[in-house]
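Section 5: illustrative case.
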């Protein structure tokens, strides 16, 4: 079997979650692919250094950097390239298939394009364009891979699929060699010091779309800090440096407490692991997620997790997290207060996190993806 996997949509520091997915999938395939499997990875000059390619044949392509022009380039150039490579199966890992290629195709779809998931996109035309691509892909691909049952249900509902037999739920994994408990590590302490973080802190994510629910996190944290006997716990929010501008009104309302809110920007994966390990908890009451990779990364580090009871987050967290209504600031505050004040509760949640994280590995993701490749190749041979 010759499977060709495309990474052409991945740009350094542009979409970290999709980059992590592709990296994890390739790492898992390197561990579990049978010796007679031939796997070719399509890369670009800009992204090839991001991926573990030693176990595969890498073919370098040079599509335009613009997303819309890259899509047109792929639709024109991928079909003859796949024929030249003798592909038995093509896997598009970024929401889109090669529409004019006649061979069997698997496509990983990362979102259903429900309006509530994409409401922050700048132009209505962009929303319509991306939704149209995912709509065509969901209807025409031989296999659609998605990370959660929530996303599978959303694809069927939003895109009016008559059936969902071709949609496969394949959860993401976690790199246990990077994300693991490491109590009182000197290197972690140095990392936190370099990021200007000292003392106890909650860790969360910031964004420029509003999905990460930062205004409510800030209000909940402020209410907690103003309670009697609350420890002086800080709040660290990682993400786009511009995200601070989107909550400047809420930050100004904090008064002197504003100095205890830290925005380190984007950090390396190793620094991210140190943040998970050092935090009292991951606070992630997102409004919508198709998976929520940070939940299992934090859990693998032994961090307690506070997350939402909506979309894919309860599916990923299971019973190991404190689940809250993301629109209820009081619930977010009370969950943070429990973790901050109750050492026993914090220890129970940390232990539950470690157990839950064992259910996720990139090798499992790769094995289930290989099964899909094999099914598609066998179906093609028998037709």
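Designed sequence:
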């Amino acid at each position: 079997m010759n499977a060709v996997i495309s990474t052409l949509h991945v740009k350094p520091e542009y979409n970290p979650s999709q980059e992590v997915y592709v990296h994890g999938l390739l790492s898992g395939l390197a561990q579990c692919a049978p010796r007679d499997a031939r796997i070719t990875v399509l890369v670009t000059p800009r992204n090839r250094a991001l991926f573990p390619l030693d176990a595969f044949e890498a073919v370098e392509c040079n599509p335009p950097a613009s997303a819309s022009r890259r899509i047109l380039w792929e639709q024109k150039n991928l079909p003859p390239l796949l024929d030249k490579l003798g592909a038995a199966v093509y896997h598009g890992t970024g929401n889109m298939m090669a529409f004019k290629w006649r061979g069997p195709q698997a496509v990983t779809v990362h979102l259903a394009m429900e309006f509530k998931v994409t409401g922050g996109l700048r132009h209505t035309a962009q929303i319509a364009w991306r939704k149209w691509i995912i709509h065509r892909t969901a209807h025409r691909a031989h296999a659609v891979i998605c990370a959660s049952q929530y996303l599978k249900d959303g694809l069927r509902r939003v895109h009016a699929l008559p059936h969902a037999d071709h949609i496969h739920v394949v959860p993401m994994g976690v790199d246990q060699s990077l994300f693991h408990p490491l109590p009182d590590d000197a290197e972690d302490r140095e990392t936190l010091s370099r990021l200007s973080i000292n003392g106890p802190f909650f860790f969360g994510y910031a964004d420029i779309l509003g999905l990460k629910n930062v205004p409510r996190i800030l209000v909940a944290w402020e209410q907690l800090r103003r309670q009697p006997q609350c420890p002086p716990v800080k709040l660290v929010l990682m993400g786009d440096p511009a995200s601070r501008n989107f909550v400047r009104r809420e930050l100004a309302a904090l008064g002197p407490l504003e100095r205890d809110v830290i925005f380190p920007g984007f950090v390396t994966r190793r620094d991210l692991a140190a943040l998970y390990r050092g935090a009292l908890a991951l606070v992630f009451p997102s409004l919508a997620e198709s998976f929520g990779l940070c939940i299992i990364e934090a859990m693998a580090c032994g961090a307690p997790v506070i997350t939402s009871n909506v979309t894919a987050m309860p599916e990923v967290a299971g019973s190991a997290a404190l689940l809250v209504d993301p629109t209820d600031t009081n619930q977010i505050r009370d969950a943070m207060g429990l973790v901050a004040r109750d050492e026993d509760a914090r220890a129970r949640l940390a232990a539950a996190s470690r157990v839950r994280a064992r259910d996720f590995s990139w090798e499992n993701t790769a094995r289930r993806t290989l099964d899909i490749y094999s099914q598609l190749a066998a179906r093609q041979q028998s037709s």
